[in-house]
Amino acid sequence: MIYKIRFLQKYDSEQWQQQLVSYIPQITTIASQLALGIFVGFIFKLLQIPVGWLLGSMIGGIIYSTIQGNPQPLPKFFITLGKAFIALATAARFSWDTINVAATYAVPLLLCVFISGILSLFHGYLLSRWSGIDRVTGLVAFIPGAASSIVPIAEEMGADAVAVAVFQYLRLLLVVLLIPSAAGFFFPVDLNDSISTAIATTATATNNSAIPLWLNLIVLAGCCFVGVWGGNRLGLPASGFLGTFLIGLAVFWSCPYDLVVPRWLFATGLLCVGLSIGVKFDIKTATKLLKAVLIEIVLVISLILLCLGVGYEFHAFTHVDIITSLLGFTPGGLEAMVATVMQLGGDTGLVLAMQLTRMLIIIAFGPWLVNFAMKTAKSEQ
Question: Of 90, 221, 346, 353, which sits most exposed with the smallest number of CB within 10 A?
C-alpha cells in the first residue's frame, strides 16, 4: 500500500511537471507581448501622447501580431481586467449631477445617437457597394461601438464572420488611434495634472478619512471580482467594464472612507486593453480583403468626421463642453474615449452615459435594422 501511494505521488508529480512544461510556450508568448506593449507604451508616455499606455501598447500588439504573421490573442483575462480597472477610475468620477445632465439632454442625445447610427449603416452600404462584399457583411461591419457583441453573432445574421471581425477591429483600431491623438493635438493639456485629477474619487469632495493602501486595494479588487462576475451573469454589454462600473459606483458612493484609484492601476488597465486589441490584428485576412480594407479605412475616417460633426452640433445645441460632446459620439472605443476625456478634462460621466446609450441602442436594434435593410433590398430586386 505504501509503495502504491509513493508511486501515485511520483506519477502526479511527473504529470504536474509535464503540464507546467506545456504551458511554457504560452507563458513566453504572453511575456513577449507584455514586454513589447510596455516598451512602446512607455515611449508614447514619454512623448506625452494622450492615453499613451493605451495607444502605445496597441501599436506594440499590432507589431507583434504582424511579425508573427497571424493574430496572437491574449487570454480574455487581460482585457477583462483592463476594462475593470478603467471602469473603477470612471466610477470614481461619476456623480448624480451627470445623471441629471444626461436626463436633461435626453431628446438631443437620442436624436444624435439615431443620426450617427444611420450614418454608420449608410457607410456599411457604401462598403458593400464599392468593395463587392455582400450587403449584410458590409452593414454589420459598420455597426459602431459593440464589436465584442456583434462579431460573435455576425454569422447568425448571415454575414461573413471572419470579414466582420477584420472590419470591426480595424474600425476600432482607427477610432482608438486617431481620436485621442487628434484630441490631444487640438486640446493640449498637462497630462500629469489631468491624470492626477482623473484618478481622484468622488470622495475627494468630502472630508472622509482615508484607509490604508492595502485595504484600499482589497476593496478595489473586490469591486473588480464582483463586477466582472455579476456582469457576466447578467449578460451586460461590455460586462467587464459595465459590471465593475456599477459595483464601483455603489461602493464609492456608500463607503464612509475615501477610496483612491492609484495612477498605476489606471495605466495598467490602459495597457491591458490596448495590447489585447492590438494582438488581434490579422494581417493575412486583411491582405486577402485588401481592396475592402482600403475602402473601409477611407469610410471609417469619413464616419469619424461626420460623428464629430454630430458631436459639435450637440455641443452647439446643448452648450455641453466641446471635448465631452465630441468624444461622446465617436463610433466606438468606449474605454479609450472614457480614458481620453479623463485626461483632457471633460465630463467623464456624461461621455460614458452618451456612449453607453448608443451601445445599448445598437445592441438592441442593430441586428433588427440590418435584417430590415436586407429585406427591403430583396423586395426591391
Answer: 221
71-75: Cβ within 8 A, 24+ apart: 71/279, 71/280, 71/281, 71/282, 72/29, 72/33, 72/279, 73/276, 73/279, 73/280, 74/30, 74/33, 74/275, 74/276, 74/279, 75/30
Q: How far apart are CA 84 and CA 78, in angstroms?
A: 10
What was the pLDDT predicted at 302? 93
CA within 13 Å, CB half, 271: 19
**CA-only gyration radius of the chain, Å:** 22
On whether the CB atoms of residues 323 and 346 are closer than 8 A, the answer is yes
What is the C-alpha end-to-end distance of the chain, expressed in Å?
79
Tell me how far apart the alpha carbons of residues 69 and 63 are, in angstroms, rounded to a whole number. 10
- pLDDT tens sequence across 37-57: 999 999 988 887 767 788 788
Q: Is 148 exposed, middle or buried, given 0-12, 13-18 or 19+ CB atoms closer than 10 A?
A: middle
The count of C-alpha atoms lying within 13 angstroms of the C-alpha of 331, restricted to the half-sphere facing its C-beta, is: 35
Q: How far, in Å, CA of 313 to CA of 269, rounded?
A: 32
Q: Residue 248, exposed/middle/buried by CB under 10 A (0-12, 13-18, 19+)?
A: buried
> Measuring CA to CA, which residue among 353, 302, 303, 348 is closest to residue 321?
348
Name residue 210's beta-bridge partners: 258
Residues 207-220 have a mean pLDDT of 79
Average of per-residue pLDDT values in the chain: 78
CB-based burial label for 179 (10 Å; 0-12, 13-18, 19+): buried
pLDDT bracket for residue 295 (50, 70, 90): very high
Q: Tell me, what's the pLDDT at 306?
A: 93
Grid cell 473601409 in the structure block, residue? 296
Distance set, CA 97 to CA 21, 104, 204, 357 (Å): 54, 10, 16, 17
pLDDT in tens, 152-174: 556 656 777 668 777 887 888 88
pLDDT tens digit string along 89-105? 878 777 666 667 677 88
Phi first, then psi: what are they for 281, rounded to 5°?
A: -65, 130
Grid-cell match 438631443, residue found: 108
Q: What is the pLDDT of residue 281?
A: 80
Task: Say whether 258 sits in a helix, a strand or coil.
Answer: strand
